[in-house]
């Protein structure tokens, strides 16, 4: 009987420790600052791809040409 009580107490302590670890991991994953940093990193990585860089440059050049034509006209 005493062995069962000790075993149950150990299982409860282990379950509490596992739950605390799970909650810590969830808190870290849901940290707004970390989520913002991850989103920023992904956005910067996307902007560094050649397709995106050249598209943005092309659109910028087109806008510049249109503005200059509007001013000159």
Overview of this protein structure:
Keywords: Membrane, Transmembrane, Transmembrane helix. This is DUF3618 domain-containing protein. It comes from Gordonia paraffinivorans NBRC 108238. InterPro entries: DUF3618. It holds the Pfam family DUF3618. The protein has helices at 2-29, 32-47, 50-72. The mean pLDDT is 92. It is mostly helical and 73 residues long. It has one domain (2-72). The N and C termini lie far apart (97 Å). The chain contains three helices and no strands.
**The number of domains:** 1
Going by helix content, strand content and strand pairing, the class is mainly alpha
Give the H and E element order.
Answer: HHH
First-last Cα distance? 97 Å
What's the arrangement of secondary structure elements?
Blueprint: H1 2-29, H2 32-47, H3 50-72
Quick overview:
Keywords: Membrane, Transmembrane, Transmembrane helix. The chain is mostly helical.
What tags apply to this protein structure?
3 helices; 73 residues; mainly alpha
